[in-house]
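To whoever is covering the structure queue this week,

Two jobs came back overnight. Logging them here so there's a record in the thread.

Job A:
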Amino acid sequence: MFNDKTVMVTGGTGSFGNAFFEIILRKFKPKQIIIFSRDEKKQHDMRLRLNNPVLRFFIGDVRDRDSVFTAMKDVDFVFHAAALKQVPSCEFYPLEATKTNVLGTNNVLDAAEHCGVKKLVVLSTDKAVYPINAMGISKALMEKLMIARSRSGNSRTTFCGVRYGNVMYSRGSVIPLFVEQIKAGKDLTVTNANMTRFLLPLSQAVDLVLFALEKGGNGDLFVRKASACTMGDLAQAVINIFKAKSKITEVGIREGEKLHETLVTQEELFNAEEFDLYYRINSHQKLDYDDYFTKGHAGIIPKDGHNSENASRLTIPEIEELLLSLPEIQKALR
């Protein structure tokens, strides 16, 4: 798919971009990879670490239409990963989340259509499903923008997306926090020990995006099936593999947090195509505007969606095995 093609990743210096580029450079021979982000320090570090002439670094912000349009010229595939992702910062500054996650996404969609990009994949989150915080709401709107654009029918660009849960050891996630607390000799803090979350290694998130690129039609949203665990079990697993004496302390559920997360709603499952590892959610891209008010779809809505409460539950030994497979954990243990 990527041989002799030009690929662009917005927010390319983040956790996804770093893992994505290593896989693409190892398995394929792209013509050029454009890393679009606003952080010059991270771009500099990535340039030195990857040291590959195929990479082209572009300083810009998805909020700035001109910089997005300029960077996307002659691009074949775009992966839109740029976002404000931290729940607390989005909760305190919801307008900033809207500017990046909604208006910034619209700039990326406009540029892709204008520049004749073959396919654009937007990256979403489980927090966009039944959203209760500003980050989730803004990412839900991002999904809706992509789906609305896919219905235009006049574009040369295919618009699709992916949605996944917590990526293990991604920037700002809880596992690096646990490791820091252990190294500092502190207790591990969880908001609620019975809170459940999906666990997804970064390599599986990249696989999901590549699957969407290969299989995605206009308006498709792909979801990786995932296992889940409680936060108490995750904390205990980290303590076990580091042989630490830390205890687990509950600090209470914060504003904008759910006890359980959902990856696919029961309404979406009704229209979803199931693969071995993925769901493809059909967005009804051929839906007529007038029909929307007068026609429904016969069928029975499933009792439950795919959420972290009813997903397959990892035991503490299984969590330990998953943690030990992460390069970051291996490095921290050394």
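Job B:
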Amino acid sequence: MTAAPAGAEYALLEVFIFLALAELLVPVAHRARLPAIVAWIVLGIGLSNFALGGVLNAALGVQLFGANTYVLLFADLSVVLLLFAAGLGTGVRGLREAGAAAIGAAIAGDLVPFALTVVVASRFVALDTALLLGVAAAPTSAAVVAALRQLEGVGATTAGQFLVTTAALDDVVALILLSVVLTIVGGHVDVLSVTGSVVESAVAWLVLLLAAVVVVPRLLRLPALREARGMPFLFLFVLVAIVVALGFSAVIGAFIAGLAVAESLVADRTRELTEVLLLFFGALFFVVIGVQFDAHDLVMPALVGAGVGLAGLAALGKFAGVYGFARSKLRDPAAARAVGVGMLPRGEIGLVVGAIGITSGAFGQTELGAIVLMSLITTVAGSWAFRYAAAGRRPVAGPSTPAPP
């Protein structure tokens, strides 16, 4: 038997420690009136290699705590489950009810913070760097939105469905925007290549969505497939593999799979199984966000200033882009505000853009650290603001939506 790669032997132990401590924190966070997401991120920061985790690593003589590749893979599984659950809770009906307003909110919610960030950042850095910073500031973290929707009990409301649908569409818009910016940064600034990139991505997403919604429910009518309790998860894994192969984010495939299974005869049973899985793995993504944050960055004024400024531009642009469309759909100003603040958290795609910027040489450590700090600030602030907006108004929804029990 070959030896395990460095870091692999402790990855599972690290994950179990994270999950156990995250579960223990839930009642503590509840008593302290903190969103569980915030408590999980703080836990991750404390157990990172840059804080208490580093001290424990040195004391134990092993590299136990840290965001190695294996831990990040477990965190990706947490994201996939969160978005699968969001799709199951929304269904095609929720997607259809969100309609053009959700599409408009997703597009404006990305383009407004992108443009605002590029205009401001281009005064301090090169245009290529400003364009990539704009893309990093644009997309909402669909995983955070899905968790907020579940944890704050607004999943059955019109606003909850509108929020998660907009966040999922936001990911599609963000990936198209990233593709366009990479085309421009690469020097191919012609209308044909940019338009082709946009159309290709949009058509691929739409075709995959329609195919999944038509095919998966029909397959799950077959007795042999319907009785296999794990079959919906097989479709989940297949769709995630397809979208990743096409260059999309895994969360898009997970959301589409959830939408498709929600229209099948096994939807209720699959929701129950997914809820059980999320009880164990739902917190991991947020703990790992904290683990990746280097607390030493907080003593660098330039990085902190860039991160706070980027977070402000991202939050202002997102709320401005989303609120009008949410207001037109929900008609209740408080519900529209809740959707607007619920879209503030940033995460996965922004960090991907950071990695691209470092690899291409467009970013230095200051820009990368600013993106990580921006993701942390918007996630914590957005979670807190959403809880405040949703408190005592369970529906955070339009006036026609009854409150869930």
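Note for Job B: The mean pLDDT is 84.

Please reply-all if you pick these up so we don't duplicate work.
Q.
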